[in-house]
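B., you asked whether I could sanity-check this one before it goes into the benchmark set. Here's the sequence:
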Amino acid sequence: MNLAERISTLRRANGLSARQLAALVDVAPTTVTRIEAGQVSPSFNLAQEILAVLGEPIGFTGTADVNAIAAARLALDPTLGLEVTQGVDAWRQRWARIGLIDVTGGAINGMEADLMFRAGRAARLTRRPGAVDFKAGPTAYDIAEALGTATIEYAVTGDTGANRYRSGAGEAWPVVYVEDVERTAEAAGLTLREPGSFGMRVTLIPFDGVSELGRTTIDGITVVERDQVVIDAYGGIDRMAEQADILLGRRVA
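And here's what the prediction gave me:
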């Protein structure tokens, strides 16, 4: 796939119009359409900016951009007290250009769901820093019980997190934020998944100082904050995006 096809495919996968993508990278809409048509070649810096916004930067190493999560979480709840780093501010500026947040960095009324969708796409669950996949088998509840016994801090998200806030979503892929991946795997009896294998899995993601903020306990299970569950579900695979819609009341369970 050449650069033009890659940009066009990723733009559509992210649910963006050519005009919206142009606003995100601060160029004219015709520039995007001409790039996708193969009529012009973008500079390296512009190509890097476009692909970074679409979640697939040049030289991509497989790590998602947690700055996008921080920017979205702060826009939805400024009391979190997160530092506005250069990376966070860059996402704020991009999203301000397409009308998702205002000049103060707060979410514009009625655009919260779109903001969480963009954050989820920029920081997909399968590409989180330090995330480790294990063989399927234990449920998120099994893991939570083991971690409670071992006094290891954790917070579930994804399928299970969505169900804690609003019953109705399926639970197929346990995803858990943990303070220590190695100790968690040992306590829960998890076995590493073979690299390159497909299908269901259990994923452990180390605390990153952003995603685990605002944890709460629902029916004895520690869950990340509701907005984070939605962001994670939008950044998940299979039917997780539908589960995010269900949680937001945009789709009937």
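One thing to flag: The mean pLDDT is 88. Otherwise nothing jumped out at me.
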